[in-house]
Design brief:
It is a single chain. With 148 residues, the protein is mainly α. Helices cover 64% and strands 0% of the residues. The protein has five helices and no strands. Helix 1 packs across helix 3. It starts with 13 loop residues before the first helix and ends in a 24-residue tail after the last helix.
Length: 148
Amino acid sequence: MGGPKGVPMKTYSKEFKLEAVRRMKTCETISSLAAELGVARRFLYKWREQLHTEGEEALARKPGQPRSKEQLSASAKRARAATRKKVQGPLQKRIAELERRLGAKQLEVDFFRRTFEHVRGVMQNPEGAGEKPSITESKLRSHSKEKD
């Protein structure tokens, strides 16, 4: 199949693609690497994704060539495993953070429950079972000077 306007599509070897993906890790910019290699930047990203999800065999395939059934099932398993790993890491961290917060909130609830029970017990028995109050009542005083 040809490229746009009948221009034949250029194919790249598996080795070329592997080297390009390896160089993506150390290059200054992807655009400069693409220009240096004479390929579109989108191909570099596409090859990197194929290598990550389907393995090196995917880079050996010519464009438009269907994958074999074994490649499809193996790549699907790798893709599921990669997705699961990407999702589980942040989720496990989030779960740990939420469990830590829940524990802290439970401590607060326990503290306030005990405090409330203590205050309720004091309020139900304000005289302390007939004991002398710890604070004497103060007299009402006027701040104005009274003249006799």
